[in-house]
Fold this sequence. Notes:
Blueprint: H1 15-19, H2 22-32, H3 34-49, H4 52-55, H5 59-71, E1 83-90, E2 94-101, H6 103-112, E3 116-125, E4 129-133, E5 138-141, H7 147-152, E6 155-164, E7 169-175, H8 176-186, H9 188-192, H10 198-201, H11 203-219, H12 224-232, E8 236-238, E9 241-243, H13 262-267
Antiparallel strand pairs: 1-2, 3-6, 4-5, 6-7, 8-9
Amino acid sequence: MGVSNSLSTKKTKSFDVFVTQDAAKKVINKTIGSSNGQRFMSAIISAVNVNPGLQECDNKSILSGALLGESLKLSPSPQLGHYYLVPFNDRERGKVAQFILGYKGIVQLALRSGQYKRLNVLAIKEGELIRFDPLTEDIEVNLIMDERVREETPTIGYYAYFEYLNGFRKAMYWSRDKMEAHAERYSAGYRAKKGKTFWEKDFDGMAYKTMLRQLISKWGIMSIEMQEAYRFDNAVIEDDNPVYVDNEENLITETAAPALSEAEQGAKENEVAAALFGD
């Protein structure tokens, strides 16, 4: 997955030129094989071309993040939402690309382990929740069947659950208020309400990711791929190591690694700017 130090770290050329040069192609072919190299380059060039902010980032950081996504067999397509390469202004490194794992990527990695019979996360709408028992984790709901009406109904909470093939089952329910408190506690950007954070742009998406990370990291089976994805989530990748960039304008949104305490996780939360979701 590593990107050689021989590759320039300065933004002296466009990414499509950078990635087709011999040094970059050698790294790509060594990492993923020459048979997959052209497909990979086409996919990542396309992802960069539709993101003006990413085009300004250090080329090496883009390639490192993309190679990680490829090693995890996740797609860079924003439409699929497996992972994102997000521009980040770092005081020491300038503009770099952060690897951000999407909640759909978490689902893909979990299901790929072959251990999960069921895995889901859902927003619970006003009027749907009848009862949730935190002791037995049983939930009783009356879901709105009209999708249009359901979409327009305010969200009151979030429910996530999994069931293994052997029948073991775990579930979590967080109220919208609890999720709001989580976002405000760990996100200075969200507290400031400047309209540029993940939480403000796609609160449900961030809530889904939070629920799945909490559920799986505490009780789920985590494959080597899943552990790797968690370790590099929200990091800039340098020489196969995660670097958790942080400054006053951009704090880290989600936990960097499952081994961190909740307080440490909060300190690593990242509020990357609107480059992911647009203005």
